[in-house]
Design brief:
By secondary structure, the chain is an alpha/beta fold. 28% of the residues lie in helices and 25% in strands. A five-stranded mixed sheet has the order 1-7-6-4-5, with helices on both faces. The protein has a four-stranded mixed sheet with strand order 8-13-12-11, with helices on both faces. A two-stranded antiparallel ribbon has the order 2-3. The longest helix has 23 residues. The protein is globular and about 60 Å long. Keywords: Acyltransferase, Transferase.
Amino acid sequence: MPNSIIVSTGCCIPSEIIPNAHFLDNRFYGEDGARLEKPVPEIVETLHKITGIRERRYVSSGLTTTDIAYEAAVEALDGHDRERLDYIIVAQNFGDVRDGNLRTDMVPTIASRVKQRLQIKNPYTVAYDIPFGCPGWLQGMIMADYYLRSGDARRALVIGAETLSRVSDPHDIDCMIFADGAGATLLESSDENGGILSHVTRTDALDKAWMLRLGRSYRPDHEGNELYIKMDGHDIYKYALKTVPLVVKQVLDRAGLGLGDVKKILLHQANAKMDGAILKRLFKLCGVDAIPGDIMPMIIHWAGNSSVATIPTLLDLLLKERLEGHRLTSGDIAVFASVGAGMNINAMVYRMP
């Protein structure tokens, strides 16, 4: 079977930089509607210590998920024939949410909108979306790998794009975590050594499906029927810490590799403390004592949590050597892993060609 090789990447990092000080005038409430007693500066500083986020990126007024997905796609397709694409897969969860209007717009799909914006005439370039929570881009990569290995397709563009700033409740402290962004990856089937070696996905919906959901604003006198993203952060933390290391070990076992073979681990960036704890648990699970200081590149401190865009953005910056102290060369092994709404967890092993 052919191998699925990443031949190019692109990303769109929004221009609006939102520092933590932006939230000092917010009024925060709990799920019960009671205003939080702790002073806002303390709330902001506590969240910074936990998540590592000091600033995040928002899209400018007037831009949508389609706009930034298109920009990432253009960058990834630079120098490549768009008409030869077999698939355009877009991971997103809220469609085009316009500034000042929380009604989601998902018809037609973001993938079809991107295809139209790219002016692709080929009717057999199939375009569709994946609403799979934060692991959506990685799941798109996994699905594309199936297409390419089957011989049914030769090229697939996988995009992760989200504008979480439009669906975050300004009265919920979790609003300080969310950010916007887009990342794109072009995969091609090839006889070249390397590429995607293995992947694992699981969905724990029986008792965990609603840990991430949509809900009303926490402010009791908030007017309107808008729905905002809500999450049980502590429960998600415990679930991720317990389960993500198991899935990463499983995907390495499927590839016939050990943790000592891995050069980089690219985790979904939702919480720096959580990612660090997952890494420690993974190394303990694999019986490895020393954790290399450069194994897990992080951008959350300035990019925030942009959901499906976090890993492809991180990958684009890494491959273009725009992350100081981090590099991947031929033969290196990278592991990708994500956790999010559903609850879904996935992981993938990739060998640089």
